[in-house]
């Protein structure tokens, strides 16, 4: 597990030590550390099939992330003026709802550029962080389309509408609490912003959406998610939609969005290393799950959550779902067993689901869209917090209390739901 720890530390520390060096050499660092783990599994453990499976997961991940990035880059939403705090809150809430229809990745890629544009006169780090909290993570907790962990659960046999039924109260509490805190931040920022010297036109003027033909390609990408074949057909359909969108989008729309491939390049290189190096950590968790004493929903919520913030939340979700089902002598690989677990142990499944989705916002690597939003914001010249600043300045003091409130209301002896 040392290469995984080294990669996380490099992502967190190297931009501060030598940003220029890291910007030029992070692909080499990521691939080198990933190669160490891969070589160990292939040549020492003789588990080449395990790494081949991880490679397929990575390709699927990048096909979805990359295609949504390219297609959404061809949709230009023109926003009027300078947004007031109330309008910003409404925008975040709409983004949270939309995340359940086109996924947190799709909603993030579609809305981050308008979000930066409507706050261009005063955009700051907290605008980016709350966008990640609400749109890129917590918002996508109502449908399996919303977030990758929930979709994996659906593929394994969790009923489609179970998520909405089991998690809607937590979604509403989490989204409302975060947007309310954002309002306090944004109200102070707005009042300091040149004391109204700039014209306030949020919610008025002309809104325009160009490149609507790409909405159909967005539908193709989302439809491809549900193609259940092991032959790579889903990934090919996504790639085809992305290519068609790229070729069919007028150059002026890409220029209006300041579109380029640098953000997806960064995600591709870094997550190649993350997917490879996190395998020992996931395998260790799976083989030692019984020793963790996962006998309460509270423990499942916090352990799934904390590790979803440090690892990618999708495989962490499956690991703890398998462990919880194993305690009931049920198999994750049997859809009938999964449906039985969802019906008879729904509170444990709620704990795993909320832990994976909500805690994905704790770090940049917890969920795929987080890094994308950070990279696009940096490309636009917006100051974004580094790895540790994000964690200690925003995630722990702002997001963690909301997560604690969910734990109190759902999984404590004083639980309400």
Enumerate the strands of the largest sheet in spatial order, edge to edge or round the barrel.
Answer: 1-2
Q: Largest sheet at a glance?
A: 2 strands, antiparallel
Number of E-type strands = 2
Low-confidence stretches: 196-204
Count of runs of 4 or more consecutive helical residues: 18
Beta-strand content: under 5%
Which structural class best describes the helix and strand composition?
Answer: mainly alpha
Fraction of residues in helix: over 70%
| Overall pLDDT score | 88
Provide a descriptive summary of the structure in words:
The chain has one domain. It is mainly alpha-helical and 417 residues long. The two termini are 38 Å apart. Helix content is 72%, strand content 1%. It has a two-stranded antiparallel ribbon. It has helices spanning 2-17, 19-44, 48-72, 85-118, 125-134, 148-156, 162-192, 213-224, 233-248, 251-256, 262-277, 279-287, 297-310, 313-327, 335-344, 346-358, 368-379, 387-411; strands spanning 76-78, 208-210. It is globular, with a radius of gyration of 21 Å. It contains 18 helices and 2 strands.
């Amino acid at each position: 597990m040392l290469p995984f720890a080294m990669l996380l530390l490099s992502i967190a520390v190297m931009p501060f030590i030598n940003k220029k060096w890291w910007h030029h050499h992070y692909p080499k660092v990521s691939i080198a550390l990933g190669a160490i783990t891969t070589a160990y599994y292939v040549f020492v453990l003789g588990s080449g099939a395990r790494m081949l499976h991880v490679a397929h997961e990575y390709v699927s991940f990048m096909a979805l992330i990359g295609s949504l990035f390219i297609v959404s880059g061809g949709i230009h939403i023109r926003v009027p003026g300078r947004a007031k705090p109330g309008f910003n809150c409404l925008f975040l809430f709409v983004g949270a709802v939309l995340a359940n229809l086109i996924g947190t990745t799709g909603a993030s890629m579609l809305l981050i550029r308008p979000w930066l544009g409507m706050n261009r006169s005063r955009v700051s780090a907290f605008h980016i962080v709350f966008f990640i909290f609400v749109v890129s993570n917590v918002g996508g907790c109502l449908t399996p389309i919303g977030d990758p962990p929930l979709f994996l659960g659906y593929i394994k046999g969790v009923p489609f509408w179970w998520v909405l039924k089991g998690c809607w109260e937590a979604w509403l509490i989490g989204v409302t609490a975060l947007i309310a805190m954002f309002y306090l931040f944004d109200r102070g920022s707005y009042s300091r912003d040149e004391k109204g010297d700039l014209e306030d036109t949020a919610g008025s003027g002309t809104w325009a959406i160009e490149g609507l033909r790409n909405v159909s390609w967005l539908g193709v990408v989302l439809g491809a998610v549900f193609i259940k074949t092991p032959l790579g057909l889903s990934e090919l359909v996504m790639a085809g939609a992305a290519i068609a969108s790229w070729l069919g989008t007028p150059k002026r729309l890409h220029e209006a969005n300041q579109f380029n491939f640098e953000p997806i390049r960064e995600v591709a290189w870094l997550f190649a290393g993350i997917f490879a190096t996190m395998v020992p950590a996931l395998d260790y968790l799976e083989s030692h799950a019984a020793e963790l004493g996962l006998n309460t929903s509270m423990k499942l919520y916090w352990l799934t959550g904390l590790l979803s913030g440090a690892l990618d939340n999708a495989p962490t979700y499956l690991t703890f779902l398998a462990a919880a089902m194993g305690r009931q002598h049920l198999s994750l690989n049997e859809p009938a067993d999964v449906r039985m677990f969802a019906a008879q142990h729904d509170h444990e499944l709620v704990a795993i689901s909320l832990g994976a989705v909500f805690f994905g916002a704790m770090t940049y690597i917890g969920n795929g869209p987080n890094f994308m939003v950070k990279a696009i914001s940096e490309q636009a010249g917006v100051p974004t917090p580094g790895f540790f600043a994000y964690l200690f300045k925003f995630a722990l003091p702002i997001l963690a209390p909301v997560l604690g409130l969910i734990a109190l209301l759902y999984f404590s002896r004083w639980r309400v739901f």
